[in-house]
Amino acid sequence: MRLAIAPDNGPIKRDPDPVLLRLVAHAFAAQDLLVRGISSPMVNHYKQRHLQQLVRLSYMAPDIISAIVNGTQPPDLTGRKIMRINKIPLDWDGQRKMFGFAST
């Protein structure tokens, strides 16, 4: 993993976490399947329960998803942590607090 300090004292930039990237991609594929009825080979083999767990990730705040894609998410935000949370808040401020993007 590559680490670098942002020149503007912003978040630390790392290589994007492949597990988190895969979760985000699967989340949107699950949303397509469950909400729009559009099939995807990425998620067709998953059971309904796992699809429901994945689809909730597709409703994360856009800046959280961008941080995951850019590798600037908090270091302790892992795929395991996200999948183990039973109730992700629907409000984006609550999500930011839960996932470590904002002070509590």
TrEMBL record:
Domain of life: Bacteria
Protein name as it appears in the record: Uncharacterized protein
